[in-house]
Amino acid sequence: MSKQTSVKLVLLGEAAVGKSSLVLRFVSNDFQENKEPTIGAAFLTQRCTIGTKTIKFEIWDTAGQERFANLAPLYYRNAQAALVVYDVTKPASFIKARHWVKELHEQASKNIVIALVGNKYDLVVDPETGEEIEGRRSVSVEEGKALADEEGLLFFETSAKSAFNVNEVFTAIGKQIPEETSKPQDEPSSVGRIDLNAPVDESGGAGNCAC
Amino acid sequence: MSATVDSSRKPSMAERRPSMAERRPSVQTGRRPSVIPHLAGIEDPVLPTIPDQCDVLICGTGLVESILAAALAWQGSNVLHVDSNPYYGDTSSTLTIEQIKAWCANVNLNTPGFQGFCKALLYIPRPDQLNSRDYSIDLTPRIMFVKSDLLSLLIKSRVYRYLEFQSISNFHTFENDSFGKMSSSKEEIFTDQSLSLATKRQLMKFMKFVLESETAHIAKELEQYKSTPFTEFIKEKYKLTPAQINELCYTLGLSPTPNILTIEGISRIRRYLSSFDVYGTFPVLYSKFGGPGELSQGFCRSAAVAGATYKLDSQLQSYDSNNKIATFMDGSKVKVTERLVCSPSQAPANAQNVPERKYEVTRLITIVKKSCKEWFFEGESAAVVVFPPETLPSHNVYPVQVIIMGSGSGCCPQGQCIWYLSTVEKGEKARRDLEEALAKLEESILRESEDGGFDVELTDEDVVSRPDGSISVINSVKLGKSFKEFVPQEKLTYLFKLMFTQYTSVEPFGVVNENVFKKTFKEGTENSVDYQILYSNMPSAEISYDGIVTEAKLLYSTIVGSDDDFFDVDFEDDEEDTLAAARNDSAILDDDDEFKDEMDFEL
Ligand SMILES: Cc1cc2nc3c(=O)[nH]c(=O)nc-3n(C[C@H](O)[C@H](O)[C@H](O)COP(=O)(O)OP(=O)(O)OC[C@H]3O[C@@H](n4cnc5c(N)ncnc54)[C@H](O)[C@@H]3O)c2cc1C
Ligand SMILES: Nc1nc2c(ncn2[C@@H]2O[C@H](COP(=O)(O)OP(=O)(O)OP(=O)(O)O)[C@@H](O)[C@H]2O)c(=O)[nH]1
Ligand SMILES: [Mg+2]
């Protein structure tokens, strides 16, 4: 059996850019036309296999209301990956994305893998030909690529609606996550985590099953 | 649910159209669609604005206020939660070194937003060796008993998912110039070679009594000791030695003062014993990467998920109780339809109605260049050390409590350790007690970590093995002698030292005073900037999280009318959590039964 790595992934971005829709596409291969702003469902897990390794994504989706918020650093602290999402038809959402990237570089862990994602790509292409329709997009590919190159980010344009490039984003992140987040053996660090859902008298032993 | 994503996966609906390579935008170089406003230069996203109206405005994101915010938001109130600082946590923040520096300056300047603290002294001898962001320093460090209202709430509210918890097994008592590790579980008492059979029997009898203290006949028996000090009660009834009384009262009970009554002492020891063996053979947990500061953020996030709006960098300027408008320093205003709750630390300048804070906690926080792993239980990264009254050269009246956080706690780099010392003693005496306790800690860690530190001659009789063969215990009396003559060969390197005093309305022992929230406003203050503001208390001196949920609940029922629906949240999609919460609530009974059986057998 292949090794399983657990990856904490956060989604950041302005309201209504399609964060939850990307997650829904990735986790359930589904899309909802008029998706409600996120309230409540803020934590999902999804397992996927990339080559020989199995990755369990712990996905933290931001709640809609948090668009007003100074997001608690707790949210992205220790995240191994982040999707910073903008809407290719909304310039303001790209500016917000740039701020998220800056904040992540300042506050999050050093080795965080960040993917910059321009969503709603379907809105700028002709569904028949796949050709881009002039005048539809507000953020150019170059603009996104330039930011990604400058800041060392993965870059994708996606559509949660058509499923275009969605799995690719997660696969690319999975590939970038180091096989074994090597921890020095001198002092205990990750060992000793207590699972609050597993009192010993119930689960019958300390060995927590990872499935 | 499981999806397999690999190169051979089935084409999705999108791929019935032109091939990936053609459509992938990132490879469509050289083709630039028209009409694209250039974005460079537009730097600021639309700034968050304060809404016009809310049901409840809460100022300060300390732990109590954050739990309150989440409880109100889930109950359906429209909550606006602000903090005057650019970070979360207020009086219970977890800060980096740079943030601590700014915090000290603000405390000493008496800036609004930092009320209730005073005389912050900071000492950083080697600034170049401290990388600010490598550290998470708690202003109010706390440990969590496994059997506690907060832990149940963390599970019920699902906030525990945002956090990571680790255990503490080692509770050391400082006695006669050396540290003893308390025999706190039944197994340890049985196997402890230093206890006589008679003492063992008395200790076990006492523990059995504590665990049964909620049954009717014991409760009745306890009635007669209603006003007896706890230490007197155990001395008389169980004939324990002063050292054992110290361990029970200050190490297991973690009493911050010697003035505690029998009932209180028993409930504190019960708290310790019943927390054992729930998640493992340890009584206490702490949250990784920072304590109350992290928990605050967790509850704030929960509140945001339930619809609360958050804004940092917002200091309250005044509240007009006539038109219910709160005004912030930046001029923005919000109408508060229900209630304004404020932490005393963030009260408006010229506030008239802040509750009296007559109790003090003095803290000394140091970062030392030593892993201190000698003090930790195998595989753990934290420990508790207690200096009972009268064990320091300063003749300390109150105990000094110490939380030791090693690098595995995620709060400092490897090879370093954070020591949090605190006392409820007041003024300069408090600072002297803490400095002396620090000196003892230094001496002790140098002794224990230095090779050849033990220069006593030991015979075979001095070393006994535990029955399970794991640990050898060395005759502590003999070692104690050598400790007194010990001269360390190296000096301990301090990287950081911070001393400050915090005021609180909560008594050192006991929980929040309900009357604080029922108070009538001072006459003649109708036109003051804070008339009708509901103030929370400042954090108590209690080293555990106990009392915090109680305070949040009291504030909640002051606002809502009752606490019946406090966190009455039904997460329908997942039964696991509620099951675990239920298990946790009822485990006390199960545990006691089990404990009783074994003891009956042994006694
Ligand atoms: C809370 C605190 C604890 C300290 N603990 C130690 C210690 O354990 N070991 C150590 O070597 N040094 C300690 N110091 C600093 C120490 O007293 C000397 O300041 C330091 O050794 C440098 O000496 P100096 O003569 O070069 O500087 P000085 O000119 O003597 O002092 C530099 C600054 O430190 C302040 N200061 C000096 N001593 C203290 C003190 N005891 N408490 C608070 N402020 C002080 C002074 O007001 C001044 O602002 C501590 C300082 C503080 C603030
Ligand atoms: N055309 C198109 N619409 C999309 C796409 N992704 C999302 N949407 C729509 O955009 C709206 C917002 O999507 P959400 O996924 O809720 O956006 P969000 O970022 O999670 O929003 P908040 O939770 O409020 O922060 C919904 O109506 C979606 O149907 C996409 O790729 N293409
Ligand atoms: Mg959403």
Describe the protein's architecture and organization:
Chain A has 211 residues and is an alpha/beta fold. Chain A is built from 5 helices and 7 strands. Chain A has a 6-stranded mixed sheet with strand order 2-3-1-4-5-6, with helices on both faces. With 603 residues, chain B is an alpha+beta fold. Chain B has 16 helices and 22 strands. In chain B, the strands form 5 sheets. Chain B has an 8-stranded mixed sheet with strand order 4-21-15-18-17-16-8-9. In chain B, strands 1, 2, 11, 12, 13, 14 and 22 form a 7-stranded mixed sheet that branches. In chain B, a hairpin with a 6-residue loop joins strand 19 and strand 20. In chain B, helix 8 packs across helix 9 (242-252). The model of chain B is unreliable at 1-37, 451-456, 465-483 and 574-603 (pLDDT under 50). Chains A and B meet through helix 1, strand 2, helix 2, helix 3 and strand 6 of A and helix 4, strand 7, helix 11, strand 11 and helix 16 of B. Guanosine-5'-triphosphate binds next to helix 1 of chain A.
